[in-house]
Amino acid sequence: MSSRQTNLRPTCAQHFCGSPAAGQHRLDIDEMVEAGIVSQEQLVQRFGAAFEMFLYDARAEDLPKYIANLHAVEEDSFGTSGTPFEIPDFADR
């Protein structure tokens, strides 16, 4: 795998967080998928790493929105159902 294939651009993470330019970020994600730059596995791994960090800070309350955004990408771009992520009770939400 080339370094281009293993590193998602920052815009991918920004899409899930609902940044003001999320629409453009979604287009970027779609283009990366179409070009074969990112697989569903890579996308979910990257999301999972951010998910684990967000559990312990103020972003935990936004995790349901982030998960919904991931599921939309998985369904639209990969034609699969969303990968389950469970938010533990201890998360600050």
Describe the structure.
This protein is mainly alpha-helical. It has one domain. It is built from five helices and no strands. α4 packs antiparallel against α5. The chain is elongated and about 40 Å long. The N terminus is likely disordered.
Q: Which features characterize this protein?
A:
single chain, mainly alpha, 93 residues, elongated
Summarize the SSE layout with pairings.
Layout: H1 3-6, H2 10-16, H3 22-34, H4 40-54, H5 63-78
Helix pairs in contact: 2-3, 4-5
Give a quick rundown of the structure.
By secondary structure, this protein is an all-alpha fold. It is built from five helices and no strands.
What's the helical proportion of residues? Answer: 55-70%
Strand content: under 5%
Main sheet record: none
SSE-based structural type: mainly alpha
Number of helices: 5
Q: What are the low-pLDDT stretches, counting only 5+ consecutive residues below 50?
A: 1-11
Number of domains: 1
Rg over C-alpha atoms, rounded to the nearest angstrom: 13 Å
What's the total count of β strands?
0
Please state the overall shape, judged from the principal axes of the Cα atoms: elongated
Question: Which series of helices and strands comes N to C?
Answer: HHHHH
The overall pLDDT, averaged over residues, is 81
Gap between N and C termini: 38 Å
